[in-house]
Structures are given as structure tokens and as C-alpha cells.
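Input (structure):
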């Protein structure tokens, strides 16, 4: 299972509608890139799990 930056932006846009402090595109891209440790433009389940284990989610 992989998530692309476009999919992450779509999710963020949906979440932004219900939050007091929405995330902007630059913040989302920086966070996404920090999760995408192999630089392939997608976050795999393994990359997500590693971030969760490290407490960076």
C-alpha cells in the first residue's frame, strides 16, 4: 500500500475543513518528504510504520 503526495493532499484538504489550524501545502510536502525515506514520491506502509515506531507521526 502506497500513498502519493496527491493523495496526501486530498486527505489533508478533507481534514482541513474540520480543523482550527489547517496544514498548508508547504507543511504537508515537508512532512510527506520526511516520511518518504526512500524518495520515491510515495509513502509505503513500511515507511509509515517506521515513523510511527519512531514517534514522528
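Output (sequence):
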Amino acid at each position: 500500500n502506497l500513498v502519493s503526495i496527491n493523495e496526501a493532499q486530498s486527505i489533508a484538504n478533507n481534514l482541513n475543513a474540520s480543523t482550527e489550524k489547517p496544514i498548508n501545502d508547504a507543511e504537508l510536502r515537508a512532512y510527506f518528504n520526511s516520511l518518504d525515506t526512500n524518495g520515491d514520491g510515495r509513502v509505503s506502509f513500511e515507511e509509515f510504520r517506521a515513523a510511527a515506531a519512531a514517534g514522528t507521526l
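Notes: The chain has one domain: 2-54. The mean pLDDT is 90.
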